[in-house]
Design brief:
Elements: E1 2-3, E2 10-14, E3 17-24, H1 28-49, H2 57-63, E4 69-70, H3 73-88, H4 98-103, E5 116-117, E6 134-136, E7 141-143, H5 153-170, E8 178-183, E9 186-191, E10 199-202, E11 214-217, E12 220-226, E13 231-234, E14 237-240, E15 243-244, E16 249-250, E17 255-262, H6 265-278, H7 280-289, E18 293-298, E19 303-305
Parallel strand pairs: 5-13
Antiparallel strand pairs: 1-10, 2-3, 3-8, 4-7, 6-7, 8-9, 9-12, 10-11, 12-17, 13-14, 15-16, 17-18, 18-19
Helix pairs in contact: 1-5, 5-6, 6-7
Amino acid sequence: MAAAPLANPARFRAMGTDVEILAVGADEAAMAELGARAAEALEVREARWSRFRSTSELCRLNDAAGVPVVVSPDTFALIARAVDAWRDTGGRYDPTVLAALETAGYDRDFDAVARVGEGPIAGHPEVPGCAGVQLDRLVSAVQLPRGVALDLGGIGKGYAADGVSAELLELGVSGVRGVLVNLGGDLRARGDAPEPHGWVVDVDDLLDTGRTGLLALAEGAVATSTKLRRAWARGGQTLHHLIDPRTGEPAESGLASVTVIAGEAWRAEVLAKAAFVAGAEAGAQLVARAGATGLLVTDDGDVVELEGLARFRP
């Protein structure tokens, strides 16, 4: 998913993905400042939330399952959102899939995941869910039950896009009236948007349907979950990173991708993943109940546009 280009976008890698920063009213110097500040802000978040950095708050929390751990306020807020999302989606979004994800082969930064593994996968671990996660808001402490570990990859990228977009606008850089943060396909727009259509987004059409088209928004967020990008082979089996919490295996719901438009990127990310796991009919209902919209692409290449999407077509 890519936004229509503006002059001098800042591009770099962070949180294991490609990042793009665009701004309304920015000259070359302003764009350079925005890019540098965004990179710093994302590094702080990655250092706290990465499951691939042994010193991160997330790894410290996962290693200490069974005892409370005090974390930074933004880490606490992210985990609280993840637990709420688990409840709100009836468990279709579940941050406790880490063991299942690692068993499937996603046990290191994706750039280093072996595309072909040795031998078949020996079973799939049960996904425990968030019922036993304890949150102490007074001191920003989290206690995981023994045997429970969190993966905050997707929701963390969305929440980072939300936070960094706000911080960039708050900098008050001369001339900058609006920003868009594209964090690996999780997009968050704030402030003024380009004229005349707003931020125009080209939805990935990985099955070449010719029907996913363009989206346009002034403010808000877009996120896509698909099994066609972060995929690999293991023991002759094609696997992907979207785990069905009911089985502990990569989800096979009849969908190839789900794109969701919502007010916040973390929520769009959660809804896209939950709808993907749920399948076309239940997934469409889930997105609608949340007051969001979007589109679903089936394995057969059918594109299902949800109610309310038309107003986001340029």
